[in-house]
């Protein structure tokens, strides 16, 4: 199919090749109306989707947003991971999964049904060797914006990347919040390389654990992700 410009090609003629196909089919199946978008971002996909959802709510484009991310294990993905992995990267076990969150404005919900409040989402771009500085800056911007001190952080959840970037990510979190902040969710490493699903699985793990802990209400959870193409980001959640 050809056209004078890419956007002149009718997507209705090739619906299953459009990136938003899966989200569109889900919306039709469940009769969900309103803005519908798909964001690609590797391990940062969940953070980018979360920030996009906050913008939709802030602009009054929606009263509630279903926000999440997904990753599939497939032969094609395994082939791509194998051929794009750098010589210094450790081969990791690929995983898959999906997670969805319901976001609503604070003034429209009953506090009894709220699991956490999204305080801030930040992202940045790093070059060779620049991950620690960029991730550190993202975390500090998020904490400054939310008025959060490191001492208020109960848990920090890295994306469990099995490469050198993952090691640097964990080192930054340890240096800022202490090794104890990484211990409650150490088992998230069992997800494997969940790629785009990572952040949604991390947030779900935090909420599931916090729901069984009465001593963490009011404290903060930190979610981070790093991607080999130079992306880094974080989200701060205040637990209820």
Question: Helices, strands, pairings?
Answer:
Elements: H1 21-30, H2 45-58, E1 65-71, H3 75-84, E2 97-103, E3 116-125, H4 131-146, E4 153-157, H5 164-177, H6 198-210, E5 220-227, E6 231-239
Parallel strand pairs: 4-5
Antiparallel strand pairs: 1-2, 3-6, 5-6
Helix pairs in contact: 4-5
Question: CATH homologous superfamily name?
Answer: Thiolase/Chalcone synthase
Structural class: alpha+beta
| Low-confidence residue ranges | none
How many angstroms does the end-to-end distance come to?
52 Å
Shape: globular
**What about the largest sheet?**
4 strands, mixed
Topology, number of strands? 6
Order of the strands making up the biggest sheet: 3-6-5-4
Q: Approximately what portion of the residues adopt beta-strand conformation? A: 15-25%
Indicate the mean pLDDT.
91
Count of discrete alpha- or pi-helical segments spanning 4 or more residues: 6
